[in-house]
Amino acid sequence: MHHRTLQRFERLFDQQLWCLGRDVLRPGDNLLAARGFERTPAPPGAATSSLWRLRTEGSEVELSSLGVRLTRGATTLFVSRNTTLRQVREADPALVAGLCAWFAAYEDWVRSRCGDGWRAQTLSERTRRAAVPAAAMRDAWRELERQARQDGSPPQQLLPGRQAEGDPQRGAAQHVRHEVHAEPHP
Q1: What backbone torsions phi and psi does residue 51 show, to the nearest 5 degrees?
Q2: Which among 1, 107, 125, 186 is least surrounded, fewest beta carbons within 10 Å?
Q3: φ, ψ for residue 65 (rounded to 5)?
Q4: Which pLDDT tens digits describe the chain residue by residue (186 residues)?
């Protein structure tokens, strides 16, 4: 991805994490639970209190205060709350596009469930300036998905089981890793 696109991703990702945190706290309607996420305790020694996990056919999304993990088949993308630019630049563009598509679909679902008012209220409670207006979040993710899909850079490949930098949820660092399905998944 180009540097400007990565910067847009980083700002929108930060905004999305804020929104997901507010969605959990929505009075009378925890949106992550309503969407089908299961809350699980964090692995022992992890720097977060809980994980929210959604399994669908062929993929899994994990959310925590540390970041977001998308697993498709044997490949995982972890995007940390704090070091997204490098992680996304070095990641498989297909996984980045998949994560952007997931965020776009989630925002579409939030809008259909809650109307435009919830996301606008969520962003109005934030002290940082919005990367994009509430009504534009879904379309911004779709545009980033499109840009990631047309990115011709080859994915950063790692050997099965080998770890790279950036993933404190696993107790060791990684941002893209091929996993063996038989490994326990925290």
Answers
A1: -120, 145
A2: 125
A3: -65, -15
A4: 788 888 999 999 999 999 999 999 999 999 999 999 999 887 787 777 788 999 988 899 999 888 999 999 889 999 988 866 778 888 889 999 999 999 999 999 999 999 989 999 999 999 999 999 999 999 999 999 999 998 744 433 322 232 333 443 433 333 333 222 222 333
Using alpha carbons only, give the angle 128, 93, 36 rounded to the nearest 5 degrees: 65
**Any idea which residue has 């063996």 for tokens?**
180
Quote the tokens at residue 133: 């207006």
For residue 37, give the nearest of 20, 22, 49 by alpha carbon.
Answer: 20
Whether the CB-CB separation of 98 and 91 falls below 8 Å is answered with no
User: What is the full DSSP assignment across 37-97?
Assistant: -EEEEPPTT-SSSEEEEEEETTEEEEEETTEEEEEETTEEEEEESS-HHHHHHHS-HHHHH
Residue with tokens 């070091």: 83
Length of the chain, in residues: 186
Using DSSP's 3-state secondary structure scheme, residue 178 falls into: strand
Reading the block at residue 169, the tokens are 């949820």
At 24, list the tokens. Answer: 């959990």
Sole residue written with tokens 């490098």: 86
- How far is it between the farthest Cα atoms of the chain? 46
Nearest to 156, CA basis, from 86, 61, 102:
86
